Amino acid sequence: MSERPKTSSETGFSRERISIPRERILAHFLDREISEQMTFIKEPAGKNRLAFTGDFYFANIGAEDNPLILELRFEPTALTPQDVNPNFQADLLDNQVRIALLMTNERYQNDLEQMGREILNQVEKREIEFDAVVAPDSLGSKLSQEIARLRSAEGKPVYLTSIQKGKAGLDKKGNLKVGSPKPWISEESGVKVNSGTSHTGSRQKLYLDPKIAEEMARRKQKVLLVDDARLTEGTINSAVALLKQFNLEVAGIATVLNEGSPVKEIDSIPFVWLTKLPLFARTKDGLEPIPGTFDGLEHFYCPSGKTIFKA
After folding, report:
1. CA angle, corner 118, sides to 143 and 232, nearest 5?
2. Looking at residue 306, what DSSP letter applies?
3. Strands 249-258 and 222-230: what pairing?
4. Pairing mode, strands 190-192 and 176-179
5. What is d(CA 160, CA 145) in angstroms, rounded to the nearest whole number?
6. Residues 164 and 176: beta-carbon distance below 8 Å
7. 203, 194 in Cβ contact below 8 A?
8. Distance of alpha carbon 109 from alpha carbon 115, whole angstroms
9. What's the predicted TM-score (pTM) here?
10. Nearest 5°: CA angle at 257, between 84 and 291?
């Protein structure tokens, strides 16, 4: 059993200094500076402005009294800070919004297992019953495989399949077209999606093998829809629409990260997420969480020496 982090309040502040052992940190492959024990400042979200000066963001996906820290790398998006919050003053020379990126195809297997276990814990707390796990290829399916494996290890085997993404090609006029990924999957089996990380010119479509979907519906299987992150009302909402198109019951939705509103339901379906993730923009001090994007987050876990706190 891992050691619980030791905390001590800093004089005059409501923040805490926390020491977290290496086994409770899911370090990113690109970070060469992770030590056997890390010190964080646990800062109440929204109390003060702050900026991160490093290349990574640390999110707690575990319990408040026993944090499990997931390290994510900052990467730019096509959004500008004005798109997110018109009143936010960002660096004029760097006008790109950053996300803290979770790419499940860049993680250690242990990371995926622990993320899957945390999702299962939250699903069980919400009393969500399911006997099938479905996820969009390819990032979501890494997690769904772990969830299915963990569930089977408990003696509760579940069916596992994936939602496939459309295949890009050119139409007769030479324009980009996204169509069915396989010859046996019809165009009618697809739903268009607007994803927060996709370019407008390559608007994606999601597909489900109709024979598989029809058999799942015949067996009245209850589906847990899993993805790595909810960025906007894109992939998740389109996946729900696709499943309902085949008369499948979506028992619950689960993601590691939630960059959308901190809701407990999506389209009246229970929604489980492990942490609320802000969007970030560069200021003179570093990458600052954009106000209005971290509602629902209780604390920032700020790496000591790589965070600037503002009044």
Report:
1. 60
2. S
3. parallel
4. unpaired
5. 7
6. no
7. yes
8. 10
9. 0.88
10. 30
Res 245 pLDDT > 80:
yes
In the three-class reduction of DSSP (H, G, I as helix; E, B as strand; rest coil), residue 115 is classed as helix
pLDDT at 51 over 70: yes
- How many angstroms separate the CA atoms of 172 and 299, rounded? 53
Q: Which of 137, 120, 126, 99 has the alpha carbon at shortest distance from 265?
A: 126
Per-residue exposure over 26-35, b if at least 16 CB sit within 10 Å of its own CB, e if not: bbbeeeeeee
Strands 222-230 vs 132-136: parallel, antiparallel or unpaired: parallel
Residue 66 per-residue DSSP state = B
Task: Please compute, for residue 108, the number of CA atoms within 13 A of its CA located in the half-sphere on the CB side.
Answer: 12
User: Which residue would you say has higher pLDDT here, 288 or 194?
Assistant: 288
**CATH of segment(s) 112-275:** 3.40.50.2020
Q: Count the helices and strands in the chain (H runs, E runs).
A: 5, 22
* Token pair of 5 as six digits: 């982090």
Reference 116, options 262, 271, 230, 256; nearest CA is 256
Q: Which residues have C-beta within 8 Å of that of residue 244, sequence separation ≥ 6?
A: 250
- Provide the residue type at 76 as one letter: P
The answer to whether 204 and 180 are in contact (CB under 8 A) is: no
Q: Are strands 167-170 and 176-179 parallel, antiparallel or unpaired?
A: antiparallel
Q: What is the pLDDT of residues 79-96, one digit of tens each?
A: 999 999 999 999 989 999
Q: Which long-range contacts (CB under 8 A, 24 or more apart) does 194-200 make?
A: 194/232, 194/233, 194/234, 194/238, 195/231, 195/232, 195/234, 195/235, 196/77, 196/231, 196/232, 196/234, 196/259, 197/77, 197/99, 197/231, 198/234, 199/78
| Cis status, amide bond into 138, omega within 30 of 0 | yes
What's the average model confidence in pLDDT over 159-182? 86
Q: Domain-by-domain residue ranges, the chain?
A: 6-97+279-309, 112-275
